[in-house]
Amino acid sequence: MTARVHCALVHHPVRDRAGHPIASAITNVDVHDLARSARTFGLAGYWVVSPIAAQRLLVERILDHWAHGAGARRVPERTRALSICAPIESVDAAIAAITEREGSAPALWVTAAKAPPGKTLTSWADGRALLASSARPVLILFGTAHGLHSTLMDRADVVLAPIQPGSDYNHLSVRAAAAITFDRLLGDR
Amino acid sequence: MTARVHCALVHHPVRDRAGHPIASAITNVDVHDLARSARTFGLAGYWVVSPIAAQRLLVERILDHWAHGAGARRVPERTRALSICAPIESVDAAIAAITEREGSAPALWVTAAKAPPGKTLTSWADGRALLASSARPVLILFGTAHGLHSTLMDRADVVLAPIQPGSDYNHLSVRAAAAITFDRLLGDR
């Protein structure tokens, strides 16, 4: 058995520079990049989480352009990537949608540039083995702005080790962090 | 000895959809994302290659904003990432600059979504071992648009295997491909 893996790009609740909860703005390039990476590594779904209806409408318009509009005729590969993407109002709504689609509730996985205090970290090798041997679906959360708010971090079933803790610099874009996460957990080797 | 590694994001000569050589436009998010990934994985330099002076000026303005302008005061981490970035007019000019800085000419490494015909592919494990054991500097080329033109591909000393050849979909953004490349070759394990 291999777990079916979903990911969510979270725009609320995430942290501002001071750690306070905010709703961040959806970025066009994030919608595309994470969809392309998720599709390449065989993820089952990519959820763009925002509580702001106008922001979800923006995602709908992007998806419509690439599913039915000029984009679909010009760059059909993009249609295939974005077909696994959907906007949704909250992480809990994503969990409910995945539970309905997959038949059981997903485990919540997170990774962060700095390990949250008091949490047991899972190595990437162990995470990879866990996905390969488990039937339970998984939802990997990625935080925008300055990362997932602690209320989400506290709910994680699996906290993956930071990607590059030995570096003197660790500020990957969420696009780069997601690509590396998928590759480490699911990539061809 | 470990090789000092540079990367270049190439905007000319790259391929359009039909394979013809073009000069592509520089994208702000590419300048930032590759700088952040390159800095996180310890690269020595990140060159943004365009023969168009107005495009290189755009990069200079971005760099100036983050080195000396409001950006530097607001997000100092970004300053550190972009300090390894420079625009340059051609791959050959990048090779010359690296040769002067490192004391010897760099080997040219490339990767591509589709392996170029007639080239011997290097596995990622072998590439990683080669970097760790060699003192010769390396310049990894990434192509924008539809990838590096064959005139550059033909000059490569090392052609890395495609990132995810077993996938039924392989259209990573250059931002994602670069992040995965650095992680596979230089990442903490």
TrEMBL record, chains A, B:
Protein name (database record): tRNA (Guanine37-N1)-methyltransferase
Transmembrane segments: none
Sequence ranges assigned to domain tRNA (guanine-N(1)-)-methyltransferase C-terminal in this UniProt record: 5-187
Keywords: Methyltransferase, Transferase
UniProt record, GO biological process: methylation
GO molecular function: methyltransferase activity
Organism: Sandaracinus amylolyticus
InterPro entries recorded: RNA_MeTrfase_C_dom, tRNA_m1G_MTases_N
Signal peptide extent: none
